[in-house]
Amino acid sequence: MILHLLRLVWHRKRQSALLLAELFASFLVLFAVVLGGVVAADNWRRPLGFEFEDVWFVGVRPSSGERRDEGLGSRDLLALRDAAREFAEVRAAAYVDPAPFQLSQWMDGGRIAGRRVTWRMARADDGLPAVLDLKLVAGRWFSREDDGAGAKPMVVSESFARHVFGTTDVVGRDATAEQEREDAAPPEKRRIVGVIADFRQDGELMGPQHYAFQRAEPGSGELRRLPRVLLVRVAPGSGVALEERLLRRLERERPGYTFQIEPLAQMRSSRNATGLIPLATGGVVGVFLMLMVALGLSGVLWQNVTQRTREIGLRRAHGAAAADVFRQVLAEVALLVTIAVAAGAALVVQVPLMDLVSGIRPGVFATSLALAVLGLYGLALASAAYPARLAASLEPADALRYE
Fold this sequence. Notes:
This protein has 403 residues and is of the alpha+beta class. The chain has two domains: 2-45 and 271-402, no CATH class; 63-256, no CATH class. 48% of the residues lie in helices and 16% in strands. It has helices at 2-11, 13-44, 74-84, 128-132, 158-165, 240-253, 264-307, 309-317, 322-348, 350-353, 362-392; strands at 55-61, 90-97, 106-112, 115-124, 136-139, 152-157, 190-196, 211-215, 229-234, 258-263. Strands 1, 2, 3, 4, 5, 6, 7, 8, 9 and 10 form a ten-stranded mixed beta sheet that branches. A hairpin with a 2-residue loop joins strand 3 and strand 4. The longest helix is centred in the C-terminal third of the chain and has 44 residues, at 264-307. 31% of the residues are buried.
């Protein structure tokens, strides 16, 4: 049966080649759209690594005319943090920069323990775990015992530790990144003091990334690049009244400075809405492309059936039932889809094999590939259903005018 179908397809090489090209391109587009959706769904169900409910973002900015790294010293930051902690509704307060869901990032990288690694980093003070409810997997968070240490203490995510050191214990390990450029400045000495669960700063749509926190406690004597974001954990149900009181207290503490207060939950909603725009755009474009493909396939197959009136009529005259003709047309389309899918799958599997895209788990890739295959079969067979019905409805007498 398959050999017979192959002969029929080969007989119409030109039309078959056009259909194959269209199906091949459709498979690649469908796979890209499905992969984006499956990756987003997989990221969404993973834990963030922190708790954002009842946490407020308080941006602290110097007075106008001063640079960001000037005008706010250690004493100012400590005074503002202490002022926030005065309220009974405030459970904890700590500095961090950048904060979760903030449109800011700090990238770092180098070679650690002989392995090349790039990671996102934030500067934080000793009280951050109490604010974000960070889950320590091993070791500890920064503390006063790190004051005066020769190496900067660093807390890394599980993925960071696993990527660089494998399954060995990383607490106490040297994390100084060797720079690969000869003219680069001497690297800052760092030491890992703890490991936390994977931390996704940008929210649910952020893929797995290596992350690290470096200590920047305002009271430790460190004045270079101090954090400028104060996170405050408040009692559940706290609202505008507390926000206004907190704002007035901070303004009294340091007149002239500008403060921006916003719940992390609200920042999360805005960040996710922004992240969903490209996904929604890609989905809409993909749907329209698939609709155009379906209409194109239906039109081509309809024309194909019309051109094969004699062939189909003679087959009916030799005793073929309408159901046999219907199945034949669908089987030819399924054969073309199989060839297109085989070629497309051979191309897309090179992506994980050659490590062209990082952060996509094999199961996610396999699921996307399976859904794209099933989607293309469904699309092609649905498009061929009406032309196949037309072919099955031909009567044997229709072939007589060709004899």
